[in-house]
Design goal:
single chain, mainly beta, Trefoil (Acidic Fibroblast Growth Factor, subunit A), two-stranded antiparallel sheet
């Protein structure tokens, strides 16, 4: 299960990591509210994170993109630039 981690890399992004809580929607699982969203580009999909802090609030979404740390390692993180992809038939 993925989760939005509170760790900030040098560029100020919040990393997407494993170790999220499995369960129903609620304040205990708010850190792992992700969904796949369709786009118009050549790559047809992106992953977004729901920034809502309560079930009755209006939800805002943030793209999940790629960031590079000071050692050159790539990480999934909340970003203004989405990491876009497409599904291919196996």
């Amino acid at each position: 299960m993925w989760k939005n981690d509170n760790f900030h890399v040098s560029k100020g992004h919040r990393l997407v990591t494993t170790g999220g809580v499995v369960g129903n929607l609620g304040k205990e699982t708010v850190g792992n509210w992700f969904m796949i969203e369709k786009t118009d580009g050549a790559y047809n999909y992106k992953i977004v994170y729901c920034l809502s802090e309560c079930l009755s609030c209006k939800r805002k979404f943030k793209n999940v993109g790629m960031v590079v740390d000071q050692n050159g390692n790539q990480h999934l993180a909340l970003s203004d630039v989405p990491f876009q992809f497409r599904f291919l038939k196996a």
